[in-house]
């Protein structure tokens, strides 16, 4: 009776009677031979049709992992049975189990990853149906594991990435599946993939690049979409440059639809972001190609942003922004630029129009969109433009400045979100996974160079002051300064932090000169002055940070003239430490250097200053002038300078070198300091006289100093 009811029960539960019979045989098997025969029948039934999750689980309950494990690792096959048949059966069972996500993440599956990876590159008859079936099942297992939350990490650790690369490069059976799985792993864990298998991934990149260069059919467009995934997170190998550039030149030089052109623009943008212009050849062909890239990018930006109400393809436009940045860099490069002067003029014109479209777009951005990655990307390209060009589009820029200040303030106050935005921007177009070199994580840093130029001009400066930009910049400077203070590892800081601090100093210098009343009345500058005073003594002692020290010293000296009545500057320990450090910076710039064949030394730059004097000299002269202005305002300063022995050592230096070696502007700077010190303090005058000050003044025709020292 029971046997009569069983088929009806199986049918009611949707069971496969044949499979049920085979599972019964498997459960009743008394030895390996019977179990092996039953497994073959089960596997055949499974491959014959789709099975549901319940059936898969019943197969697993009947089989378990023990026998498949033995099949995968056995080295002795029955007589007349090829050894790979047993492994194929084991893999087929695992593939069946892995269809269940829970089983795909089972430790007994994960520990098979190294074995499964070896099957991808194992040699054998390419026409053997059983071997092909095993390869398909292997890919099914690995793909299922990759789909689990921690699967990619296990696959990478198990050597799967290298195996997939080798399988693809071998172009054997299933190589297309290898590529598809590689794409998935790179998308999920790019950094880890490159760390574990860089040589193999670079080999794949070289192969794809060669295919891209040779492709004459639609596959070149598919490769355009694929190649960005295989560009390393650091530097693209130079041997790939030619193939990638040649392939892109053929595509972009043709008349194409947007779906064909856009992937090419995104690939070019990724290369520009990773390599700058290094991947573009020098000469006529390279300059024409670069001009084509930038022109196409500008046209795309204008089409996307000038049409109100149209849907913006943000990933494509962001890629175009990267190409525009490349154009800006090349147009402003004086030496070894890829572009000729007429090309630069033409590109500046088209980029101006595109930047106008960006400004038009940003003027429409409401508060609800300020945290969107595309807005951040748009501010970034505008910042890159303003860093080099503020004279054109002045009216439009001034109109946008209030928005830019509010936007920068919003992101500054939500710094973590701003950093996340920069990641999202990179993900939007430059890299399909994580970015290469990280884009700056705050909008303010992007805008600093442009604001530095704008604070020189009356109109833009007034808008920036009205919108509260100086206060925001002070807070930003103090925040960034904390990153460089003791207790923080400055070796891991990106260069952009120190560059940002220097640019802030330049903006403040502009405000000191053009808006001195603001410095006196805004409390934020008192806080800034306190920070400068407490920070400079340690900064001047640090190797490799002389340029930042010069900015801090000069800014502090200029601000001290304006804030001379502040209690903090009345001979407090902090003020004395600051001026002692400033004297150290100013006094160590030049030394006496012997010259062959001459009895007299010449005035020369000290080694630490020599390499960066082109960037330093304006700050040094401004600092000398500012120190001179502080002496009569701070009565305690002249005695402090005398105790430092700076005036005596300065006269000693001038007396030891040939006057002909000292340039007139240096003579003027030195005389300014010496005269003010002599006028401010009798002891200074006496010390200078003892150091042959009158004779030295006569030799250098320092009439003001000579007269001052001749007085009682």
From TrEMBL:
Pfam families: Neurochondrin (PF05536). GO terms for cellular component: cytosol; dendrite; glutamatergic synapse; membrane; postsynapse. GO terms for biological process: bone resorption; neuron projection development; regulation of neuronal synaptic plasticity; regulation of postsynaptic neurotransmitter receptor internalization. InterPro entries: ARM-type_fold (IPR016024), Neurochondrin (IPR008709). Coiled coil: none annotated. SUPFAM superfamilies: ARM repeat (SSF48371). Belongs to the neurochondrin family. This is Neurochondrin.
